[in-house]
Write a structure and sequence with these properties.
globular, binds adenosine-5'-triphosphate, transport, AAA+_ATPase, ABC transporter ATP-binding protein, P-loop_NTPase
């Protein structure tokens, strides 16, 4: 392992100095080259403010997943700059990107991404294992987080024994495991019926407040956009509107 083995799960001090947690500046991204190239992002600029839930909306193929992957350091843009918490991702080598993804960012996916043979509590413990958090501390935090997402009584169940909505709650708890600054969620309600989907969005809304985390969520579900503090719309790889604050409830 690298020298990034931190065992603490103590929350890092939230630096709420008014600076955005994510800055995306003129980002372009293409897949392939020449005549076959797909220009997924064509000069995208926007910021994600700390402590907010920002929704990235847009039709299928508009570039949402591509953009989330770049912000999460899973891919490198063809052009432009992305900074997370003041760090330009282009300056980070793979070990530091790995540490950033492990320690500072939580990920939630459409398909939940839980490990079928592990219990809910063990799934939540996976990111902490990667940081070598001691077993007892891991178990305690996993149970605290499962209670937070309303699954205190389901810690020992495996994903196959849980509903889709419950599985996504486990995934949200897992995303919070290492007390990240930022959660990136890609269509987290895409496989859920609308009522369950709404409850997951309400959960995300609640953890923004209770866990002082920032969330960037891609969705094309218009019913869910209204729960966001801010909406960024992508169309054909370009931002259409990056400044729509929704009314505070
Ligand atoms: N690995 C890849 N290779 C080639 N083209 C790709 C690849 N990934 C995405 N694309 C293309 O890039 C464009 C943007 O795709 P992206 O998945 O980012 O859109 P999206 O808004 O997330 O769509 P969806 O809502 O369906 O997930 C699309 O034209 C897609 O076909």
């Amino acid at each position: 392992m690298t020298d990034h083995q931190e065992t603490a799960t103590v929350p890092a001090a939230r630096k709420d100095d008014g600076t955005p947690i994510v800055v995306v500046d003129d980002v372009r991204h293409s897949f392939g080259s020449g005549a076959q190239a797909v220009h997924a992002l064509r000069g995208v600029s926007f910021e994600v403010r700390r402590g907010e839930l920002t929704a990235l909306k847009g039709r299928s193929g508009s570039g949402k997943t591509t953009l989330l992957n770049l912000v999460g350091g899973l891919d490198t843009p063809t052009g432009g700059r992305i900074s997370v918490d003041g760090t330009d991702l282009a300056t980070l080598g793979e070990p530091d990107l790995l540490a950033l993804r492990r320690d500072r960012i939580g990920f939630v996916f459409q398909s939940f991404g839980l490990i079928p043979v592990l219990t809910a509590a063990e799934n939540v413990g996976v990111p902490m294992r990667l940081r070598r958090v001691p077993a007892q501390e891991r178990e305690e935090r996993a149970r605290t987080l499962l209670a937070l997402v309303g699954l205190a009584d389901h810690a020992e169940q495996r994903p196959g024994e849980l509903s889709g909505g419950q599985q996504q709650r486990v995934a949200v708890a897992r995303a919070l495991a290492n007390d990240p600054d930022l959660i990136i969620a890609d269509e987290p309600t895409g496989q859920l019926d609308s009522e369950t989907g709404r409850s997951i969005m309400e959960l995300l809304r609640a953890v923004v407040r209770s866990e002082a985390v920032t969330i960037l969520v891609a969705t094309h579900d218009p019913n869910l956009i209204e729960l966001a503090d801010r909406v960024v719309e992508l169309r054909d790889g370009r931002i259409v509107d990056a400044s729509t604050p929704t009314p505070t409830p």
